[in-house]
Amino acid sequence: MAALFHARRAPVVVMGVAGCGKTTVGRYLADSLRVPFEEGDDFHPRRNVESMANHTPLDDRTRSPWLAAIAGRMRVAGAEEGLVITCSALRRIYRELLRVSRPDAFFVHLTLDQDEANSRVAHRRSHYMPASLVASQFEDLEPLEDDEAGMTIDATLPAERIVAEIQTELARRT
Q1: Which residue, 115, 133, 163, is CA-closest to 62?
Q2: Residues sharing a CB contact under 8 Å with residue 26, sequence separation 6 or more, in sequence order
Q3: Are 63 and 133 contacting, i.e. CB atoms less than 8 angstroms apart?
Q4: For residue range 162-172, what is the model confidence (pLDDT) as tens digits?
Q5: Of the residues 6, 33, 44, 170, which has the fewest C-beta atoms closer than 10 A?
Q6: What span, in angstroms and rounded, lies between the C-alpha atoms of 33 and 10?
Q7: Ordered DSSP codes for 28-62
Q8: CA distance 166 to 151
């Protein structure tokens, strides 16, 4: 238990393309670690949400204020509080921007193929991100590299198994 308590103090960023299950896994992981959960989509400026709802993908310029807001939340998450936050973090430069605020951040990249992501997004209710933008996310995606603190896991596994594997990796790193 002591190892898990220590491991949970670094913020965990659950990342990946739309439809990979960031919110589901993030909430479950946060509950299991007993730390706050933040939905990264809630940090988007209104104009970003409107752009995506109108089938316009975001670019580096439009993602910048969103990433800054997430980084700000990560910065104020104290070591005692811990945090699980979702963020697509598609490009390495975006992850590096987040690491500026918290160099100890741990990234969990949920992976799935484009067809599965399209299917999941097309069947979501009450979300502004249309399936038409999934391809643009795959175009921007730069998977985690070996020198980045994090892990990659198959997003088609059951959420319980994904969270168990994340917990095992976090405990191993303490």
Answers
A1: 133
A2: 14, 37, 39, 84, 85, 86
A3: no
A4: 999 999 999 99
A5: 6
A6: 11
A7: HHHHHHT--EE-GGGGS-HHHHHHHHTT----HHH
A8: 8
Q: Distance between CA 55 and CA 71 in Å, rounded?
A: 26
Q: How far apart are CA 155 and CA 143, in angstroms?
A: 14
98 alpha-carbon distance from chain centroid: 11
Neighbours of 48 (CB within 10 A): 18
For the chain, helix (H) and strand (E) counts, in that order, are: 8, 5
- Write down the mean pLDDT value for the chain: 88
Largest Cα separation within the chain, whole Å, is 47
pLDDT digits (tens, 9 = 90+) for 77-124: 866 688 999 999 999 999 999 999 999 999 999 999 999 998 998 877
Look at residue 92 and give its three-state secondary structure.
helix
Range of the domain at 16: 2-172
Cβ atoms of 2 and 107 within 8 Å: the answer is no
**What CATH number is given to the structural domain containing 140?**
3.40.50.300
Q: What is the pLDDT of residue 78?
A: 67
Tens-place pLDDT, residues 29-59: 999 999 999 999 898 878 877 877 777 777 8
